[in-house]
What we know:
This protein has 343 residues and is of the alpha/beta class. Helix content is 35%, strand content 17%. The chain is globular. The mean pLDDT is 95.
Amino acid sequence: MSDFTRIEFNAGDGKPLFFLRLTPPDPYRGPVMLVHGMSVRSNIFNPPVARPLPHVLADAGYDVWMLNWRASIDVEPSDFTLDDAAVHDHPAAVAKIGEVTGWDTMKALVHCQGSTSFMMSICAGLLPDLPKVTTVVSNAIALHADVRTLMDIKMPFAMGALRHRVDGMDAQWGYHAPGFWAKVTRSLMLLHRECRNPVCRMSSVVYGAGWPVLWRHENLDDATHDWIKGEVGWAPIAFFEQIQASLKAGELVSTGKYPLSVLPLRFASQMPKTDARFVFMTGSMNRCFVPTGMAATFDFFEKVAPGRHTFQKMHGYGHLDIFLGKDAATEVFPFILDELNRE
């Protein structure tokens, strides 16, 4: 990570967050913010492959800002919801980019729960006017969540069993599970014999229904599959409860922690307060959040502004292998670049 500069800032509620910035000699295309998902960190965009996405973007002239928001395993853990990130993290992050760069426009690439929380923020009109976010590339999930039938059965059972018994779930339990309920959850790894990587197997227990859930093994090289051991960690139970409520509602919902004048209860039942262009993408074989959810979000935005937005399924890819795959630089990243470059 020697090519990256660490830039610290505080969220709206004072929580310390930071960026890792990769700036080319001449950032003629301006800043782009990369936002990771739950229980990982910004380094998830920088796997040990020949051409990771941040360097591809920098080579194309983008000033790359990789955000570590409160879901990052490099940030002090807390009992948070997506609402907290929408209200406090993303507006402060966008403002910090504007303060440092002086640019009046920027773009964003957001993944999974980094995407849901960012979509809440931009659709509620919480981002600063400058720099204006003009294009958002959203991966895996946005305003609608859809999961496999087995996960629809599994999640309510898991929440009923674990709520009030643990404060979160951790893929690192694949190595060591502290306490009775963590050990009970870890025992489900017996159902996952698809590889010998304990974090890979535990991630599949926690995040969906599949063998494995977060990526397709055939898309990862051995070095990246091994590297994953240190890249997936803890997530709060409050987050899983919010996703369960969103699945039940059929669209992304807030928790009610903040006034309706700040965050609406439902996000696909009102007009988004943004004129940004959205690119919705997902792996055609995503086993964490199935593509029908992202298709529903595209349909929602298509009704708001017909012909303005894009939806793309990446053939043969799952959830995170879109960024981690050994061939992603030639099969996925050109699409992302083309969409970011469109005006």
